Amino acid sequence: MIKLNINGKQVDLDADADTPLLWALRDDAGLTGTKFGCGMGLCGACTVLLDGQVTRSCVLKIGDVGTKAITTIEGLSPDRSHPVQKAWIAENVPQCGYCQSGQILAAVALLKSNPRPTDADIDAAMTNICRCGTYNRMRAAIHRVAKGTAT
Amino acid sequence: MNRTPQPTSTPLSRREFLTSAIAVGGGLALSFSLPAQEGGPPRPAGPPAAPRSPSAFLQIAANGAITIITPAVEMGQGGHTGMPMIILEELGGDVMQLVVKDAPAAKMYNNPLFGQQSTVGSFSVRGWYTELRRIGAAGREMLVAAAAQEWGVSPADCTAANSVITHKPSGRTKTYGSVAALAATMPVPQNPALKDNSEFKVIGTSPARLDVPPKVDGSAKYGIDMVLPGMLVGAIRAAPTVTGTLKSFDDSAARGMKGFHSTVALPNGVIVLANTYWQAKSALEKVKTDFDPGKLGGVDSAKVSALLHSGFNEQGAVVRNDGDADKALAGAARVVEATYEVPYLAHACMEPMNCTVRANGDTAEVWVGTQSPQAVQAAAAKALGLAQESVTVHMQYLGGGFGRRGQADYATQAATAAKASGRPVKLIWSREEDIQQDFYRPAAAIRFRGGVDASGKLTAMEARVVTSAAPDFGGSPNPGFYTASVGDMVYDIPNLKVTGINKDIGLRFGFWRSVNQSHNPFMVEGFLDEIAFATKQDPYQFRRSLLQHEKAKRHLAVLDMLAEKSGWAKRPAGHFYGISAFAAYGSFIGSVVDVSMKDKTIVLNRVVTVIDCGVAVHPDNIVAQLEGGMVYGLTAALRGEITLQDGAVVQSNFHNYPMLMMSQMPKTESYIMPSTAAPGGVGEPGTAPIAPSLASAIFAATASRIRSLPLSKHNVDIIAARA
Known about the structure:
The structure holds 2 protein chains of 2 kinds. Chain A is of the alpha+beta class. Chain A has 2 domains: 2-75, Ubiquitin-like (UB roll) (Roll); 83-146, [2Fe-2S]-binding domain (DNA polymerase, domain 1). Chain A contains 5 helices and 5 strands; from the N terminus they run E-E-H-E-E-E-H-H-H-H. Chain A has helices spanning 21-28, 83-90, 100-113, 119-125, 135-146, and strands spanning 2-6, 9-13, 47-50, 53-56, 69-71. Chain A has a 5-stranded mixed sheet with strand order 2-1-5-3-4, with helices on both faces. In chain A, strand 1 and strand 2 form a beta hairpin. In chain A, helix 2 crosses helix 5 (135-146). Chain B is of the alpha+beta class. Chain B has 3 domains: 8-215, Aldehyde oxidase/xanthine dehydrogenase, molybdopterin binding domain (Aldehyde Oxidoreductase, domain 4); 229-294 and 348-436, 2-Layer Sandwich (Aldehyde Oxidoreductase, domain 4), CATH 3.30.365; 314-344 and 440-720, 2-Layer Sandwich (Aldehyde Oxidoreductase, domain 4). In chain B, the strands form 7 sheets. In chain B, strands 11-12-9-19-16-17-18 form a 7-stranded mixed sheet. Chain B has a 5-stranded mixed sheet with strand order 1-5-4-3-2. Chain B has a 5-stranded mixed sheet with strand order 14-22-21-20-15, with helices on both faces. The longest helix of chain B is centred in the first third of the chain and has 28 residues, at 124-151. Chain B is globular, with a radius of gyration of 27 Å. The relative contact order of chain B is 0.11. At the A-B interface, helix 1, helix 2, helix 3, helix 4 and helix 5 of A face helix 14 of B.
């Protein structure tokens, strides 16, 4: 039994300590918004926030999480009201949408540390793969949040 | 809080909102037939399509909810928004009361243009456009007739809009929901009146895509998210060669591992079942397997290239033979020759292949994101020994399709495991399996010879097209298919000979976004560019000179719009432009790529794309598709390559099959040609022009001609410009 702090709640999971956080979230905690893409920390579909820091959950064992606060896409807001979610909707960003949970969390972390990112900042921080090619819309959505015009 | 109703998109057929639903036209068959569209594929032979009941597409509940069942799945291309918009336009329905569902697997939803229920080939809007309009219009006329009957007035005195029927002389109104029950008893009009394009209120607008909200909070359900009571999760290892077979396996080291359930042998691999995916994957790593490599054993990529080139010396099928190309080439003032080649490519959908199956005795259910529901249904039925109609396919969102999810191999595997275990099974492929067990965009090559007269006019061309795919869709591939954009080019070349030959090496063919047009335009347009530079002509003006005839009008208009929007005539100093345009999927597409040099690095300043797709149903989504297609094509052009070693695919994950990232994303401008022509495709065309336009720009900037892809093999460094 491993204790994790997921989206503000203490959760006991019946999973081995070497289970990647991604699969503990999906199969044991029932939070399927976090996606499996590569299993090697390359694509970022599994991105969650750990104490606010971008983390690739497919290569982090739950035994190594400790007491850090895990934020998944389900914990970002109860009603799609986070400014990044609103901007994503306003720019019609997602296509297939599979990578977007991770993309949104990466943008949340970027904007928290850097509320007015330049294009170069966005290039450096947004390192998740989007196979549908929504990059320019994500960039526009991030700038939208920075300008305070999310809706 | 009482929230404003929002249109919703759900790929789940379990949504229970229609408890009091009364279908418009319920149970009444309405047979529509459509003429074959010019430029489209021939209509399938055999008996005519089953009659389509409007209620299979459109239902209106007493509370006003409008349920539209879309025959196009949602894989990010906008199928859940664009298709309903077409019905809604003619129905006069309120978009805020819209609920969209996926069609179940049933022949009634076969695309009128090509006779299959598959979201492929950029066929959805162009195949369904008129049919969906007629369904919407029939619904509107039945609702109006019902209201008129209740009022005792003439339907001709009534109008309908925003789900409200108005009796004009009196100003009385009724909602669609209030007359839906009576409307269902009205005769179905056989020739409902369709709007003139000038009356469109929905088509041509860009409402928010219905599938976007659930995709920003993690609530959108993809196939991989399925959970069933008592479900086992499977991890798979297939033979390293796609032609391989399983000789034996030993799972003794896996037995007893936590959560392990069983190992299921497949003809070409093993599936380990466990309580969770991680348990299954961990146990699979302990299973020893022995495979026979089959036909691909010993094949490596050098052999692939040699095989392609050997095809140049063989007699291919002649698919085009205008004038006398051999004679004209023999008599030409100058002959230009060039050979172009591209590698195999994998799809790499972000969501790895997966499928969930539950066998319930005489019936079964499948939960999956698929482009071809009936193919999944048939595959699962066969594996389970059931009749096809005994299998229900529950459609989920697709985490990317791109042609890969038109296949049903994963459904066969999941059904086999469900049968063997007697439990519901969710099978999830690893990324490695996903890349190494794909159906691949074929490696292909074309050898060109072009004959030019003394004035620089292109008088003759010969193109020998060679592809290398094991067909997986029945029979030998048709040369007319894999010579697309070559055999059917509209350039005015009086002596033109095009041949095609398939050198099957054993690697199976896959429909990869834009299919044969993912490479043939790169080659044809590249070679035309070579002729233009060899004869000292402007690449844009040279193409113009070959398009001065009636059949090339729309193609030429796209080329001209590209020149205008990109500022072709006023290229700034230090900027080098490349251009290409051609017909694709019932549309006309082209792009201009603008590059400059920074030392030896090529700076990609912007990509300007123009499409003439006829009537633009949802312009913002079309722009999104053009950008997305461009990224798919640019990703392949820069670094996309699947290679073989001893018959096995070498690439395994995103470290050696890299994808374009944010930092490499160029600025884009996309333009839609105003048009009232019948809709063309938009999902695939945007993929095709980036490679030829980029290669053309690189030549303009460096005098180095790119004749093979990817660019990473040419020591070309490319970065995206940033302000």
